[in-house]
Amino acid sequence: MSLAQPFDNFEEAALFFKSALGLQTHEDIEIPATYGLFRSRAVTNDDRSVRVITTVALLYDEASVTEDESRKNSVEFEVPDILEACEWVWARGGELLRVGHNYYVDLASRSDFDGATLEQMERLGILYDQIGSGKLLQAFTPMIGNRLFFELCQRIDGYDSYGTANAPVRISAHRGVTPGLPTKAVDET
Q1: Is the pLDDT of residue 124 over 60?
Q2: Percentage of residues in the chain with pLDDT exceeding 70?
Q3: CA 93 to CA 104: how far, in whole Å?
Q4: Is 54 helix (H, G, I), strand (E, B) or coil?
Q5: Segment 111-137 mean pLDDT
Q6: Domains in the chain, start-ordered, CATH in brackets?
Q7: Distance of alpha carbon 155 from alpha carbon 146, whole angstroms
Q8: Are 139 and 124 in contact (CB under 8 A)?
Q9: Where are the beta strands (DSSP E) in 6-160?
Q10: What is the DSSP letter of 23?
Q11: Higher pLDDT, residue 107 or 44
Q12: DSSP labels for 120-149?
């Protein structure tokens, strides 16, 4: 689960999860997004069967949508076979977030996936991350309303992170398909 926090409550949230629920806090990670950096912190139980991510925008400008973008919440479901799970979602009329073709061109250059698997991953909207021998495959729903999305993920060979490298790709894809969410061009002031 990922829970967005107001800037002033970020530290309090970690303290709550640690003191009230006995979860362990982990190091902060900064993530680049459309309107600036976000800070993310994981809290987990000992066996990592419970994982909560808290996020906050590092800079808040009332004239922009920075706070809106930083207040996205998500619920993640770990699945044993993400290809099968995503096929199931699409076959039953569900929808997963589409990612730009360039992501998969880049993925082909930095992974050992065969062409057919890459095509299937692109068709289904699956992203990939690897740290050491651990691998993560993940797919996201479009925004439900403008504050919530769901994630399907498959962790392979002890992958213990959260796909942080894919966060800017996911944020960009959400901005491209979320009705009513403005997009700000680089040269706009």
Answers
A1: yes
A2: 84
A3: 24
A4: strand
A5: 95
A6: 1-71 (3.10.180.10), 74-180 (3.10.180.10)
A7: 27
A8: yes
A9: 24-33, 36-44, 51-57, 73-78, 127-131, 134-140, 148-156
A10: P
A11: 107
A12: HHHHHT-EEEEETTEEEEEEEPPPBTTTEE
